[in-house]
């Protein structure tokens, strides 16, 4: 099976990007610091989020292919929360969030947006992403409706525009492990959504 690259628009629609083969093998191991430097260069070259994502997601794939240690840099899921996060790089005023996330089998996230661009790669397990679209009305300004879903397998990547709304569910009998890269988050625009009560609550 060919690894799949997905792109999720601001209104929650999933598109496939044509599979991009990895660049020619580098003379040296593609390490995290090189990856972060190249991502920063891309951010400096364009302020268009879709262009950024199209340039960054092949680098994420290359990093995971060349740096197997990332799949072991995880914490087991918290028994109460059902998930855990391991920060891989943290620097004051650094404009990126770089982390691994582990979900316990059967665990489901709240419905949320990220208020920034993001790239997620599935390292192990299987994960279902359900996408939502804003459908506001006079009575329910925060109303949303489900518009599709995608199941991710190991090796797949998924890239999100800032306004994309989704939730994730860990499928199968083993935890899911993902590598997550996000831009600078606008926390005044990041919400959890309740599709029944038609409410949106800031993180």
Task: Lay out the secondary structure.
Blueprint: E1 5-8, E2 14-17, H1 32-45, H2 49-66, E3 83-89, E4 97-103, E5 111-113, E6 118-124, E7 126-134, E8 144-152, E9 157-160, E10 165-171, E11 176-182, E12 191-194, E13 199-202
Parallel strand pairs: 1-9
Antiparallel strand pairs: 1-2, 3-4, 4-11, 5-10, 5-12, 6-9, 6-11, 7-8, 7-10, 12-13
Helix pairs in contact: 1-2
In short:
This protein has helices spanning 32-45, 49-66, and strands at 5-8, 14-17, 83-89, 97-103, 111-113, 118-124, 126-134, 144-152, 157-160, 165-171, 176-182, 191-194, 199-202.
What does this structure look like?
The mean pLDDT is about 95. About 15% of the residues lie in helices and about 35% in strands. A seven-stranded mixed sheet has the order 2-1-9-6-11-4-3, covered by helices on one side. A six-stranded antiparallel sheet has the order 8-7-10-5-12-13, with no helix packed on it. It has about 200 residues and is an alpha+beta fold. It has two helices and 13 strands; from the N terminus they run ββααβββββββββββ. Strand 1 (about 5-10) and strand 2 form a beta hairpin.
Main β-sheet, spatial strand arrangement: 2-1-9-6-11-4-3
Q: Any idea what the CATH superfamily is called? A: Jelly Rolls
Terminal CA distance: 37 Å
Secondary structure: helix percent: 10-25%
Counting DSSP E segments of at least 2 residues, the number of strands comes to 13
Uncertain runs with pLDDT below 50, 5 residues or more? none
Strand content: 35-45%
CATH topology: Jelly Rolls
Major sheet summary line: 7 strands, mixed
Number of helices: 2
> In the CATH classification, which architecture applies?
Sandwich
Which of globular, elongated, flat, extended, rod-shaped describes the shape?
globular
Radius of gyration: 17 Å
Q: How many structural domains does the protein architecture include?
A: 1
Order of helices and strands: EEHHEEEEEEEEEEE
Determine the mean pLDDT. 93
Structural class: alpha+beta
CATH secondary-structure class:
Mainly Beta
């Amino acid at each position: 099976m060919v690894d799949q690259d997905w792109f999720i628009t601001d209104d929650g629609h999933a598109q496939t990007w044509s599979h991009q083969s990895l660049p020619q093998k580098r003379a040296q191991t593609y390490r995290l610091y090189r990856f972060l430097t190249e991502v920063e260069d891309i951010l400096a070259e364009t302020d268009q989020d879709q262009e950024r994502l199209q340039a960054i997601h092949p680098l994420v794939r290359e990093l995971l292919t060349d740096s197997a240690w990332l799949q072991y840099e995880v914490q087991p899921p918290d028994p109460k929360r059902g998930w855990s996060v391991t920060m891989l790089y943290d620097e004051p005023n650094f404009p990126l969030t770089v982390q691994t996330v582990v979900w316990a089998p059967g665990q489901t996230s709240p419905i949320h947006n990220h208020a920034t661009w993001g790239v997620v790669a599935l390292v192990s397990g299987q994960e279902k992403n359900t996408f939502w679209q804003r459908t506001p009305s006079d009575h329910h300004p925060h109303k949303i409706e489900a518009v599709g879903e995608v199941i991710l397998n190991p090796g797949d990547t998924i890239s999100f525009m800032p306004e994309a709304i989704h939730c994730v569910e860990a499928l199968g009998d083993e935890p899911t492990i993902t590598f997550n890269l996000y831009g600078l988050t606008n926390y005044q625009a990041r919400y959890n959504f309740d599709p029944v009560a038609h409410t949106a609550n800031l993180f």
